[in-house]
Design brief:
By secondary structure, this protein is of the alpha/beta class. The chain is built from six helices and five strands.
Length: about 170
């Protein structure tokens, strides 16, 4: 086993952070000495929350995971090439969550491109837990905007903020 610690980077837009994201974060933090959650600016996706609020929500929602697993978890915004951000934070592993076979094709291509950009940074795929495999932030936003119940898809603080953002009472 190598004598260096794993520094993981889990990137995403987290708009909003879901219970599926928290599942992956909890499991990834158990594998790494330090986990950086990179919150991507990604304005092209038309985020519901501005970047600073997404970072704040992720920080609040992962606090208990860091304590429970005894892992340092940092939440940082980024708007650069993922490999450049990985270098900036000292990550040697990129963590990606897979929900379904449809995710794999895209993620496989991205992992290949990232490997070509830096062969010293590995990509690790974690399968979403069965109860979270169908959760996607874009569906959560759509359900919230259309008046549906999202309480089983997101943690409590994120639920309140999402409902407030779409003009609904928690």
């Amino acid at each position: 086993m190598p004598d260096h610690a794993l520094i993981g980077l889990y990137p995403g837009t987290f708009d909003p952070i879901t219970n599926g994201h928290l599942d992956i974060i909890g499991r990834a933090s158990g594998l790494c000495a330090r986990l950086v959650i990179g919150v991507a600016e990604n304005a092209g996706k038309g985020p519901l929350f501005p970047i600073n609020e997404r970072v704040e929500l992720v920080q609040a929602e992962v606090k208990s995971i860091a304590v429970r697993n005894g892992t340092a978890i940092d939440v940082l915004p980024f708007d650069s090439l993922l490999i450049a951000f990985a270098h900036e934070v000292g990550a040697n592993v990129i963590v990606r969550g897979l929900r379904a076979v449809s995710d794999f094709d895209y993620e496989f291509q991205m992992a290949g491109m990232n490997y070509r950009l830096d062969q010293n940074i590995e990509t690790v795929f974690l399968m979403a837990s069965e109860r979270h495999q169908f959760i996607a932030s874009r569906f959560v936003k759509e359900i919230a905007l259309l008046g549906g119940d999202i309480s089983s898809f997101v943690p409590r603080l994120t639920l309140a903020r999402t409902l407030d953002r779409v003009g609904r009472k928690p």
